[in-house]
Specification:
Radius of gyration of chain B: 23 Å
Order of helices and strands of chain B: HHEEEHEHHEHEHHHHHHHHEHEH
Structural class of chain B: alpha/beta
Oligomer: heterodimer
Strand order of the largest sheet of chain A: 1-2
CATH architecture of the largest domain in chain B: 3-Layer(aba) Sandwich
Distance between the termini of chain B: 48 Å
Largest sheet of chain A: 2 strands, antiparallel
Strand order of the largest sheet of chain B: 1-2-4-3-5-6-7-8
Number of strands of chain A: 2
CATH class of the largest domain in chain B: Alpha Beta
Largest interface: A-B, 61 and 71 residues
Structural class of chain A: mainly alpha
Strand content of chain B: 5-15%
CATH superfamily of the largest domain in chain B: Alpha/Beta hydrolase fold, catalytic domain
Number of domains of chain B: 2
Radius of gyration of chain A: 22 Å
Strand content of chain A: under 5%
């Protein structure tokens, strides 16, 4: 059932993607009336002040088109599916699903913590993966956090950054959203590693519906990922949202890449605010 | 035996002595600027129910209006409605300057009211782009009388949208910051139109005069090294301080704890904290100026007659708009617009018009109003504060600390706020 919907969704997605790309190439329509220069222009402030929230973004037109494409994709396909999922699925099942995929995601954090020689993060992540896969019934529950093993996050983009690669130009990916040249490459590598591990493990090899099951799992993963993400395109209504999001994404990644190798296991939950 | 009694007495009394000290006012952040930025730590907010019946309202206020391509995503005015399944009083809440109906402070207020059995309709600020594009008749925000008329139209439409689904026992009105001042003007309009007959109206940290508040916001940026025009330089320096602090300090995530650690370490001086507040006001203002200029084809920051496409890069406009001040908006954009409507209007008369003093007679004539203010709110002068106290007497609740809106989510404040409407 889901798979059928997904196949149809894929087709819709492709046509939307093409439409989005074409929109990116559209030229500015000439206005009927001649333009009059505005009262305040950039010339007034260049040389006087630095730009703030500046991020290297030479592909801005493509990115803005992709940002708009993601808005439509969310609005007409992704979010309706996610909301349908949230409506029909009991909340404890949703938590279980999120835990399950987050547990699979530990493999990505583990490989990348290793690649960055982060001993403590590697140990914690390995501990989490083993605990949650066994005591947590295959990852459906997250007892590791209760045992004080806080979840870490590492990906190949961070690994590249750790070994000195700059972020490169800002890049808005279809569906995945804000990224950079480096992080998009990292995402491809991480997906490759995960896919490779799936192939080696091949958990459904003795099933006739191998492909259907895999497709279903991948689809549910995408739905769960969107379900866990609260950001929504143009939700702020702020006319310069694109620039604020670009800046926040870039800064967050910079901080992630440059963070110290072994942070103290500070609690992420309710902080002890009062001195 | 006596000794034992004495011991028991001590144990019983000691906590109450401690409590007496707390009763003064327990909001923990004494500094006005720090409070404004940090707000209320989560542990000092009340606990709210996990589930709330809400509905997102998208109101088509002007069905005939054609929206420019650059605002293609704007499909109507967004409001949030939280409803009880039984007959209950309804509170409209007007957001503060530059905020929409999903702003953090607004959501917290919504939950507090909902928890105590109120229906709530949360409205965006008339200074928010969504409002300018979809709900402002003039598309030029800033005139309290016109903005109140726009808000009233929105409230009518929102009420039409939900009236068949809920039972309402009375209508009430609440607003914070700019929204507080607007609430007074909306109540005055309702006094003529009599559609809602607001039972009670509460203003939280309102601006007494929009012009003097603007001057005070600009004063926050005046002390930056090199002046307000160097705000980009200032921001970038603050950013690198912030990043360094994060990298050196063994933090796992940017969260409450990290922000509180910044506060405790006094990473930013009071002057820098004030600058950051001024900057955040400027960011809001930038959105307002851009939206209004595009909607009116005003030729202020965007070339007149230029049609911006959905994927048009806006970085240059962002840079220009963030460098304009409230006072420039007033003198170069807002006053000329008002003067076109009323050629006799002087600048001084307009300044007087955009303040609570201009409707003083009405405010005195009714006892439905209440106000919550903070003694160290830097957007209000001591004279303005005593003006409010004279005007509302016992119905003016003044807290010693909190800065501008910093204590709004503090449990005592929320309790007073909700209690006011009981």
């Amino acid at each position: 059932m889901i798979t059928v919907a997904v196949n149809r969704a894929n087709r819709l997605f492709l046509s939307l993607l093409v439409a989005g790309l074409l929109a990116g190439c559209a030229t500015v329509k000439p206005s009927a009336l001649p333009e009059v220069p505005p009262r305040h222009t950039l010339a007034e402030f260049t040389g006087v002040d630095q730009q703030f929230a500046y991020v290297y973004d030479p592909w801005v037109r493509f990115n803005r088109s992709m940002y708009n494409f993601n808005y439509y994709f969310d609005k007409y396909l992704f979010l309706p599916v996610v909301h349908g999922y949230e409506f029909v699925t009991p909340v404890f099942v949703q938590h279980g699903v999120s835990n399950f995929y987050n547990n699979i995601g530990e493999v990505r954090t583990l490989t990348n913590a290793l690649l960055q020689l982060k001993g403590k993060d590697t140990a914690v992540t390995l501990g989490r993966f083993l605990t949650n896969s066994t005591l947590g019934l295959g990852g459906l529950f997250d007892p590791a956090t209760k045992f004080g093993l806080q979840r870490r996050y590492e990906d190949f983009g961070q690994t590249l950054g750790y070994w000195g690669a700059g972020s490169g130009p800002y890049l808005v990916l279809p569906v995945f959203g804000p990224s950079s040249a480096r992080d998009a490459g990292g995402l491809a590598i991480d997906s490759g590693i995960t896919y490779g591990l799936w192939t080696v493990a091949d958990p459904f090899s003795n099933s006739d519906d191998d492909f259907t099951i895999s497709a279903g799992i991948t689809t549910l993963e995408a739905i769960d990922a969107r379900h866990q993400q609260s950001f929504s395109y143009y939700d702020s209504g702020y006319p310069f949202e694109y620039y604020v999001v670009r800046f926040l994404y870039h800064e967050k990644r910079e901080l992630d890449v440059n963070k110290p190798t072994s942070p103290a296991a500070a609690a992420q939950g309710e902080p002890a605010i009062m001195p | 035996m006596h000794r034992k009694l004495l011991l028991v007495a001590c144990l019983v009394l000691l906590p109450s002595l401690g409590f007496a000290a707390d009763e003064e006012y327990g909001y923990p952040i004494p500094g006005a600027y720090e409070a404004t930025i940090i707000g209320t730590p989560t542990s000092l907010m009340p606990r709210f129910p996990a589930k709330m019946h809400t509905k997102e309202l998208v109101l088509d206020i002007f069905p005939e209006r054609e929206k420019p391509p650059v605002f293609f995503y704007d499909e109507g005015l967004h409001c949030t409605f939280a409803y009880q399944k039984h007959k209950a009083p309804l509170v409209f809440i007007i957001a503060g300057s530059g905020s929409n109906d999903r702003a953090d402070k607004l959501s917290t207020m919504m939950k507090a009211f909902y928890q105590q059995g109120f229906h709530v309709i949360a409205l965006p600020s008339p200074s928010h782009a969504n409002f300018i594009v979809s709900a402002s008749a003039s598309r030029v925000p800033g005139d309290l009388t016109e903005d109140a008329a726009d808000l009233y139209r929105v409230m009518e439409a929102a009420w039409q949208d939900v009236r068949d689904d809920v039972e309402v026992s009375s209508f009430n009105l609440c607003g914070y910051s700019l929204g507080g001042t607007e609430a007074a003007f909306v109540a005055k309009l309702d006094d003529e139109r009599k559609l809602f007959n607001f039972r009670k109206v509460l203003m939280i940290n309102p601006s007494v005069s929009l012009y003097t508040s603007s001057q005070r916001i600009e004063a926050l940026l005046k002390r930056l090294p090199g002046g307000p025009l160097k705000e980009g330089v200032f921001f970038n320096r603050m950013l690198s301080k912030f990043s360094q602090f994060y990298q050196l300090g063994n933090f796992v995530a940017i969260n409450d704890q990290f922000l509180y650690a910044i506060y405790q370490s006094k990473l930013f001086s009071p002057q820098e904290t004030a600058g950051l507040i001024g900057l955040s006001f400027r960011l809001n203002l930038a959105g307002m100026i851009f939206a209004s200029d595009v909607m009116t084809n005003g030729g202020y920051v965007v070339p007149k007659n230029r049609v911006l496409e959905p994927n048009e890069p806006l970085a240059d406009y962002f840079m220009v708009c963030t460098h304009l001040s409230y006072l420039q908006y007033f003198d170069e954009y807002f006053y000329p617009y008002m003067k076109r409507q009323r050629p006799q209007l002087t600048r001084d008369a307009l300044v007087r018009l955009e303040s609570l003093t201009s409707i003083e007679g009405y405010l005195k004539s009714t006892d439905k109003f209440g106000v919550m203010a903070n003694r160290n709110d830097f957007l209000m002068s001591p004279e303005e504060l005593s003006y409010l106290q004279r005007l509302f007497g016992e119905r003016a609740k003044v807290y010693p600390t909190g800065g501008h809106l910093g204590n709004l989510e503090y449990k005592d404040n929320l309790a007073y706020m909700v209690g006011f409407f009981r």
